[in-house]
Write a structure and sequence with these properties.
- Strand 7 and strand 8 form a beta hairpin.
- The chain is mainly β.
- The protein folds into two domains: about 55 residues, no CATH class; about 90 residues.
- The protein has an eight-stranded antiparallel β-barrel. A two-stranded antiparallel sheet has the order 1-2.
- The longest helix is centred in the middle third of the chain and has 22 residues.
- The chain is about 10% helix and about 40% strand.
């Protein structure tokens, strides 16, 4: 017994067909039949179809839209921590000359437990980096990945004058702007 073999025949290209290759008709026949036989019935045919192509594009587009809409439905937990905002520390250093040097540090805390740190000397930014922060029982830990700086551990203090961050020794660290 022999298995069916594939026989390839060419059809003519229609005028409105935009493909550069000729459409091909693929027929699977057995060895017992002749392709030129008028009673020959192909077992399997495959022809390019513009309607099928459009449907595939439509289903692909709908799948992409569904994936995007499902992935955007997730919610981030809301963070209403009191430390969120801009905090700064300004120091003026006397060098003995006519001009004093000013050194300013600035922390911008956001609600995703991240932030931006700036060190500014005489109005020029010398350090600009991101930081991570966390809070545990009112104690805030600020870490600076990528910098050779130790983590800052501070406490938030509220007073009539405003909010202040203090280090663990009670020294002022930064004030809210």
């Amino acid at each position: 017994m022999t298995f069916p073999k594939a026989v390839k025949t060419d059809k003519t290209v229609k005028k409105n067909d935009r493909s550069t290759k000729k459409n091909r008709l693929w027929c699977h026949t057995s060895n017992f039949s002749n392709i030129n036989d008028p009673m020959h019935v192909p077992l399997y045919t495959k022809t390019p179809n513009q309607k099928t192509y459009k449907m595939k594009k439509l289903f692909s587009f709908l799948a992409i839209v569904a994936i995007i809409s499902v992935s955007n439905c997730s919610r981030i937990a809301e963070n209403n921590d009191q430390v969120i905002g801009i905090w700064s520390n300004v120091a003026e250093i006397s060098t003995g000359k006519a001009q004093n040097q000013t050194f300013r540090e600035e922390w911008i805390f956001n609600d995703a437990y991240l932030g931006r740190y700036h060190a500014i000397e005489n109005g020029r930014i010398t350090v600009k980096t991101d930081f991570k922060w966390s809070q545990d029982d009112g104690i805030y830990t600020i870490s600076y990945p990528g910098l050779d700086r130790i983590d800052d551990i501070v406490i938030l203090k509220e007073s009539q004058d405003g909010s202040m961050l203090e280090d663990m020794n009670g020294n002022p660290f930064a004030i809210r702007e």
